[in-house]
Specification:
single chain; alpha/beta; Rossmann fold; Alpha-Beta Plaits; 2 domains; six-stranded mixed beta sheet; four-stranded antiparallel beta sheet; 13 strands; globular; binds ribulose-5-phosphate; Ribose5P_isomerase_type_A; Ribose 5-phosphate isomerase A; ribose-5-phosphate isomerase activity; isomerase
Length: 212
């Protein structure tokens, strides 16, 4: 059921891609359903950038033209999410790709999120994924009570280490304040709290239907 919904959301998002576009590809099991939907369309001249080595490998295997992210802007980016709050805040980074995902989303004129019906929540909750700089890691962790490195160790493709913030023990009362605090913490490369201002559309699949 959930896997089928991921495919429904992914297929809806694939229809947004037009010939000649530059398109950012996210990471995860929902995006894994997007790639064959894109490959099945007879699109010409689309240039893709990928947020992770695994998406890149899967996209290339399907014949999609993935290039290094050396473009000043993208027409569109499509990605999944771990949680979607009613006010549009997201938690991302379950797959540990949130640093690149944030860069690609920020570069896109339109960032579209695709999720199954289990992802909308009443309020965001921990864990909040983090990427931490390897340099000075112990001191960064000391500044972040409640943060724990993933085990086994999950290095990012950019040399950071993936961790998760497990506090507070309950809903995140103020995601914007938490995001600002994490942004201001030396050693935090990126976190998985994505603001509504970054997101143009959220496509939520429920059964065979897509809600916007
Ligand atoms: C990876 C992500 C994914 O988009 C998020 O974890 C959702 O994944 P899935 O589509 O497998 O449920 O942020 O870093």
């Amino acid at each position: 059921m959930i896997e089928a919904e991921k495919r429904v959301a992914a297929e809806a998002a694939a229809t947004l891609v037009q010939d000649g576009m530059t398109v950012g590809l996210g990471t995860g099991t929902t995006v894994a359903q997007l790639l064959p939907a894109l490959a099945a369309r007879d699109l010409r001249g689309v240039r893709y950038v990928s947020t992770s080595p695994r998406t890149e490998a899967a996209a290339r295997a399907l014949g999609l033209a993935v290039e290094p992210f050396a473009l000043p802007a993208l027409d569109l980016a499509i990605d999944g999410a771990d949680q979607v709050a009613p006010d549009g805040w997201l938690v991302k980074g379950g797959g540990g790709a949130h640093t690149r995902e944030r860069l690609v989303a920020a570069a896109a004129r339109r960032f579209v999120v695709i999720v199954s019906s289990d992802k909308p929540v009443e309020a965001l909750r921990p864990p909040v994924p983090l990427e931490l700089l390897a340099f000075g890691l112990e001191s960064t962790l000391r500044r972040l009570p409640g943060a724990r490195l993933r085990e086994p160790a999950q290095p990012s493709p950019d040399g950071g280490l993936i961790a998760d913030l497990h506090e507070p023990d309950g809903p995140l009362a103020d995601p914007a304040a938490l995001a600002a605090g994490l942004d201001a913490t030396p050693g935090v490369v990126a976190h998985g709290l994505f603001p509504p201002s970054l997101v143009a559309d959220v496509l939520i699949a429920r059964g065979g239907e897509v809600e916007h």
